[in-house]
Design goal:
By secondary structure, this protein is of the alpha/beta class. 37% of the residues lie in helices and 17% in strands. The longest helix is centred in the last third of the chain and has 21 residues, at 598-618.
Amino acid sequence: MGVVYLGRAESGALVAVKVIRAEYGQDEEFRARFRRETRAARDVDSPWVVRVLDAGPEAEQPWLATAFEPGPALVEAVAQLGPLPPRAVRVLGKALARALTAVHAAGLVHRDVKPANILLAADGPRLIDFGIARSLDDTAITSTDLVVGTPGFLSPEQALAHGDQLGPQSDVFALGCVLAYAATGRLPFGTGPVDALLYRTVHDSPDLDGVEEALAAVLRRCLAKDPADRPTPAGLDEALVEDLPSGGADWLPPGVVRLVAERSAQMLALPENQPTRIETATGTAVPSRRRFLALAGAGSAFLAAGGGVATWAALHDSGRQGPAAPGWAIGVQADLSGPSRTAGQAQADGARLAVEQFNARHDRPFPLALRTADDAGDPGRAATAAQRLADDRDVLAVLGSSTDKTTAAALAVYDPALLPVVSMSAGQNLMQNTRSFVRGRPLHNAVAMKLAFHLEAASAPSPVGLLLDRGAGDVSWMSIQMVNRIVPLYPGGSTYPRVVPAGTTDFAPIVADMRAAGVRTFVYAGPAQSTIRVARLLADFHGPKYAAEPALDAAFAAEPAAEGWTVVASAIGPDATSVQPFARAFQSRYGRAPGHWAAEGYDAANLLIAQLTAGRAKAKGGRPTRQALIAPLRAAKFQGLTRKFAFDLDLDQLATPASFVHRVQGGAFRYLGPAPDQPPAPKAR
């Protein structure tokens, strides 16, 4: 609808000024609606709604000024830091329910309640943007065949373009979508083409997996297909049993509080008002402060647009920034809300620490930002997450993704965009013939080779039972095949391999068969939850027990039957001596010890930072292109905390593929050290 500027009132207070596009100003029907709605919006009285301060409905280009809230939008906080904890979601819902109560009491329907229109402040959320609001008593303005709003946060009646049915309950449905997104990091009706998204909104049940049941029950009522079945905002307020914040920030997780504080500090650093300058057709700049104030029309004494602070020019409705000097950023694509979110969040946290340390340097050559994209470990969402980073012109290189399948899906976006990507998690061999990809870790079969070397070095007795799980993908196939190949090469070495079909949950018959065959060592390669099931079946088995990398998960270590199991993985232990400086910095920054994969994320980010710094030098102080970074990254030699990075591009892997040994002791993983790099000398069994 227009451009949003950051401005100042004469008092010095910051304001957001939306200047409506000229073509709307020529539409008398629009002016009539704008006049009525701005008048009604100024009557909205709620601490949870950003206040409308003034408006110029009669100006050549109508404008609307609201109080400015420096906090991040909900969409940004969730994208960067992951879903909010349940209490924060309840506080968010309760405050926004009261905001909608005030909006509806003023005779308005918001019609675009979405994460981008919700700002997070220390003392609670704020609902913004009445850009497409509609007066409750004005049914003639909205066309009955026009879909208005944001797909993914539309009610079924909006999706069906039933304009005559839009009312307060449509806002309640949208709020339900917002709260589901805040709780899970996912859109409740998925992603994809708009027509498919609208169809699922009308016909499908919402995706509320992972939401605590009490909150999920409330959200299901909000997301009822029939508006009559939804609660009123007041009813939603009552159903969300929680205390609203009273000035403190304890309702927000620490990462979001930090983000709010950073934004507030940036606003305090803004310059005083300066005359706005507009580029003319000849390229010369002319002062235009008077012109802007004239544009605002009568009654605009309130407004003083500052050129020094009017550099936002953000298209607020789309969430995209307007023209500005290109920035410097690295992206992190990871599973931040799905089944492998522990590893994904650890990498993101490690990368964020590296970026913050770089920005804290007094001699930093440029300010660096971190952008995150959550693919939830879902290959179907990976391309969308990758596209978001690829479309961000500030992002020059990416760390990601967390899993084999999501990385493969994301490369279909990154490679055509010539956006450099380094992965610390993807260990399958499906990334051949890519131009912009380097693997910062060994392949699964290389890790399995080290597992076999360790097994032999420890004189594990034969026969070695090998359980291949077809449901575990390449990691199981590559791991079991490698161990099966190496063990018989040693004197006395033998294996007893078995396979379970994909989807198998009852491993008891197969395990019983292997034990009846007399296996004396056991190796299973599958996900953590399946490894737990196998461990329980082997609780009274006293021979050596080994698991593959997916079992490097706190849930597996916490399982009593996992005691004594050994896991060989490409992730180093956070208690390793080489990463202790990092671990102390991580503890200071996040208030907790790092988990597995955090040091790898830190190393990968520092590798990319080194390439950006070198690229800047080659560009003689300018910003390198993405493409210009690819060849240097692939040829890079970098000593990290977890390993030395040097890439063998013929083999599509590290030239120095370090792997590490961990053992479950006392309900946690104990780091034992690097796995053997070379085959051990044969020993008597």
